[in-house]
Amino acid sequence: MTNKVPARKYFFSPYGVVKFGAISSPSTRFEPSGEYSIKLAVPAEDAAEAIAYLEGIRDEKATPNLTPHPVVSDEVDENGTPTGNVIFKAKAKAHVIPRNSAIHPFDQHVVVVDEDNNTVTEPVWRESVVRFRAEVIPYANPATQSYGVSLRLKGVQVRELVTGEGGGTGFEDVSGTMPGHAS
Q1: The model's pTM
Q2: Degrees (nearest 5) of the Cα angle 153, 138, 135?
Q3: pLDDT level of residue 3 (50, 70, 90 thresholds)
Q4: Where are the extended beta strands (E) located within the chain?
Q5: Which terminus, N or C, of the chain has the lesser number of Cβ atoms within 10 Å?
C-alpha cells in the first residue's frame, strides 16, 4: 500500500487594497533569507464567500480541545474603530530549506501579473488594488491550543497599480517660509 500525498488546496482572494506588502521583492527585516508577504484589506461583505472557503478547510483540521484560529482579522483605524474591512494575510519564504534533507534548498518568487496576465515589473506599493493566490496549509498546534490555516503567497494580480517615485526626500522646498529658518 502506498501513502498518497493529499492534493494541494489553493485560495484566490477577492480584490482588495494592499495595506502592507513585500510583493515585488522579499523583505529581510525579520527573515534574513527574505520573505514575501501581503496584508490585503477587503470589505467584509465582499469577503464572506472567501472566509467561508478558508473556514471549511480550517475546520477539516478541527481537533478536540483546540480552539479555531480566525482566518482573517478585522481592520481598525488609528482610533481602534473597525473600518468594515477584513485583512487577509499571506507570506512565503524567498529561500526555502526543506526539513527533508533529500530535497535541495530552493528559491521561490511571487508572480505578479495584470488583469490580462501580462507580467508586471514595476513594484507594487501600498494602496494598490490587487488579489492574490495562495496555497492553503492547514495546521493544528497543541502548544498554542489552536488550529487554523496558513496562506503561502504564490501570485498577485493587479487591477490598479500604485508605485512610488524613486529618489529624493519627498519634501518640497520651503525655505524662507518657516520662522527662524535662514533664507
Answers
A1: 0.82
A2: 25
A3: low
A4: 9-12, 16-27, 35-43, 67-68, 73-76, 82-93, 95-96, 106-107, 111-114, 129-141, 146-160
A5: N
The count of other CB atoms within 10 Å of the CB of residue 31 is 16
Contact (CB, 8 A) for 128 and 17: yes
Q: C-alpha cell of 147?
A: 488550529
CA distance linking residue 43 with residue 165, whole number of Å: 29
pLDDT over 60 at 75, yes or no: yes
Work out the mean pLDDT of the chain and round it to a whole number.
88
Amino acid residing at 124: V
C-alpha cell at 109: 518568487
Nearest to 71 by CA among 82, 83, 60, 79: 60
